[in-house]
Amino acid sequence: MLFSEIVYGPIHSRRLGVSLGVNLMPIDGKLCSFNCIYCECGFNQPFAHPVLPTREQVREALEEALRCMVYGVRCKVDGVQCTDGEKGKSPDVITFSGNGEPTMHPEFEGIIEDTCALRDMYCPGAKVSVLSNATQLGREDVVRALYKCDNRILKLDSAITETMRAIDDPVNRRLTADDIIGKLKLFDGDFTLQTCFLRGTLPDGRIVDNTTPEELEAWYKAVRLLKPKQIMIYVIDRATPVKTLEKISREQMEAIAAPLTKEGFSVQISA
């Protein structure tokens, strides 16, 4: 499921509420530093020269979308006609996600600054959120930009390198789970940790399962080290590029969350 616009929605997110989405990656394929086996956008495309929206294009598209939502102005956003049902409703959140890793955009910091200014102008009650895999936290501009957001939602699908690589398939083949955890420590707990729990068989026959006792022990250890202000755990909900993945039950997700909830962590389950 690719997003064919710069700004899309609003959609009703399981985790965030009424969300106006922003896609900073190409509209004709996925471009990401991960190639996750469960990604609803599919696998990465072999772009020779990927075309990303400019900072100005993002600002213009977002302002048009917010005008349509908040003031009921009849307008078009990237060719998508606003409907009567969307008029006069402010988003709960402006979410950077889309067809790949948003922090890979070279103008990410400036785009976030523009977004915060537009939010303050049109819908000051809305939050600015970024869904990120944390791979770009070696860039100071990305860290600065994320600190300007209300919600930094950062991913850790496994605290064990072999499993992380099996699930997330990072483009950087040397990336380890400890590398990701080390980058997440930059925020001193002021972020939301996001994990997708799943199990299944990979195309090469390997079994992948981040719900085993060994996996959970390592993940709990990472959570206790990072002390995130919130934890979002969720299951696959749409078609995945690897078809042999299994959805984890609500009961098992509640069992996974239980030890952390008892310790005082805020855990949100989407199952």
Report on this structure.
The chain has 271 residues and is α/β, with parallel strands linked by helices. The chain is 31% helix and 21% strand. It has 7 helices and 13 strands. The strands form 3 sheets. An 8-stranded mixed beta sheet has the order 1-2-5-6-7-8-11-13. A 3-stranded antiparallel beta sheet has the order 10-9-12, covered by helices on one side. A hairpin with a 3-residue loop joins strand 1 and strand 2 (17-23).
Short account of what is shown:
The protein is α/β, with parallel strands linked by helices. The chain has helices at residues 55-71, 108-122, 140-147, 161-168, 177-184, 213-226, 250-262, and strands at 7-13, 17-23, 76-77, 80-81, 93-97, 127-132, 151-155, 192-196, 198-201, 207-209, 230-234, 245-247, 267-270. α2 runs parallel beside α3.
Distance between the termini: 20 Å
Please write the string of helix (H) and strand (E) elements.
EEHEEEHEHEHHEEEHEEHE
**What's the mean pLDDT score?**
92
Class of secondary structure makeup = alpha/beta
Number of helices: 7
Helix-residue proportion = 25-40%
